[in-house]
Amino acid sequence: MKVPNRDQAKSFLRNAEKSNPGPWVQHSLYVAEAAERIAAVHPDLCADLSYTLGCLHDIGRGAGVTEMRHIIDGYRMMQQQGFPGAARICITHSFPVKDVRVALGRWDCPETDRQFVVRYLEQIIYNQYDTLIQLCDALAMSSGFCLIEKRLMDVVMRRGMNAHTIKKWRMIFRLKEKFEAEIGRSVYAILPDVVENTFGFNPGCE
User: Fold this and answer.
1) pTM over 0.90, yes/no
2) Is the pLDDT of residue 121 over 70?
3) Can you list the domains of the chain with their CATH numbers?
């Protein structure tokens, strides 16, 4: 899989932040860390590669404040840089179910771009890294790691939901069960401060 190295990925992210600063950058770093931590205890995954893919999954947001267009912008950016493995993640991270109807964001791009995504999803077979980043995207907010339920509700409160949302949620929980079976432990056991970030609990306060 042709992707940037870790330092290159962080450089891409820093440059994108200059163009469009916002909480998406910190979210990307937490997704990267979650992916790295899970991969480090997984028998078949590379921790460095997982970090890089997590770091770049939302890189298209550097093109501006957009909704679903960010996946196309990210895909094109990484393809132009010669990194098709990272380009792929820019699209696949949004679709635990290979159905564009699960997207909650507005398709703020030409219809030809949406149709490209439809065909792209139809033609590929997800690999372990696709599904890892899909899971980690649901484990990280811009403030840190949290229960999946909090992240899912955060997205719905901001973007609403549709008739296909529950299908997407079910798949995310299936991915959690799959990876937990493969690593032999709860994903929450290897992510720090899940309780504090989910419930706003500060152990230093009464």
Assistant:
1) yes
2) yes
3) 6-196 (1.10.3210)
